Amino acid sequence: MADSWKHCLDAWEEYMKVERNMAQNTVVAYMRDLCEFRDCVEKISPGAGPDEATTLMVRSFLAGLGRHRNTASTIARKLASIRGFYRFLNRRKITDINPASSLRIPRYNRPIPSFLTVDEAFRLLDNVKQSDALALRDAALLELLYGGGLRVSEAVGMNMDCVDIERGLVKVRGKGDKERIVPVGPPAVRALGLYIAARKLMLKGRSTEEPDALFLNRNGKRLSARWVQKLMRKKSIQAGTRSIATPHSLRHSCATHLLDGGADLRGIQELLGHVSLSTTQRYTHVSIDGLMAVYDKAHPLAHRKSQDKGGTGNDTGEADDE
Questions:
Q1: Which of 152-156, 187-191, 247-251 comes out lowest in average pLDDT?
Q2: What's the predicted TM-score (pTM) here?
Q3: How many whole angstroms from its chain centre is CA 46?
Q4: CA 151: distance to chain centroid?
Q5: CATH classification number, 2-91, choose in 2.40.30.10, 2.30.30.230, 2.60.120.260, 1.10.150.130
Q6: Which active-site residues does the annotation give?
Q7: Which candidate among 57, 61, 134, 158 keeps its CA 20 to 30 Å from the CA of 267?
Q8: Could you tell me the residue ranges of all domains in the chain?
Q9: pLDDT digits (tens, 9 = 90+) for 71-84
Q10: CATH placement of domain 118-248
Q11: What is the β-pairing status of strands 163-164 and 179-183?
Q12: Residue 83 has what DSSP assignment?
């Protein structure tokens, strides 16, 4: 039966990689979830294969996750992994059962994306001094993350031929190896132009392991996502933002500011490369929260409402004079 698990898991992994073209991190997470479920099944019933798993076993697996204080979102993802695995087995006629099909995914509140205010974003970008080739690189990178709403993995994965300075466009390879064309604003275009010119001088007479990579470190290697996170932390502290900014919070800031400026959700969805519009709709909550905060701070009726709640209104019970 152990071979049965191996055969099924190997087939599912190949399906996710080849047919679904899923991101490597997603494949790794789903495989880890299923290996954990397999271990749970074999612990309950030694030697049991995937076609012998029961709904009770899935419940036991989820209960164990709860006891180990996994979050509701983690539990939901692991249940979704099991469901997807068995749907795949059903389509391949390997088994006709799906022990997770009758279980409901637990409800959980997705956290509202963190973002910078417009002033904070400008302060962060202005904090990068464009003094040499490496500083020009940092400025171009941050302008691109904010101006194009790119994921950090997309930015560091770009090559030289991905940038069209004249048209103000960049070609991005996103999740699932999907390509999209992203327009970027004049500040990002200027910063990229300055960096690319400086990059040529920086590499003159030197060899590099990845000559096609757009963003290089001082040793001629492609920048890593971890390095960009460290850069963001440093620049965020220097700029004095409310919270430590991350590359992803710049992406969230781009989407939020576009929405506040009147952009439609479909356009933002295309820009960010979201597969589902529901993912993009999270930004409407951010904007509404911001709108309510501005209303409470600035609108005279908001102050009057808070005073009435505090018992400082007209004590006679008569209507206030207009």
A1: 247-251
A2: 0.66
A3: 39
A4: 7
A5: 1.10.150.130
A6: 151, 175, 248, 251, 274, 283
A7: 158
A8: 2-91, 118-248
A9: 888 898 999 999 99
A10: 1.10.443.10
A11: unpaired
A12: H
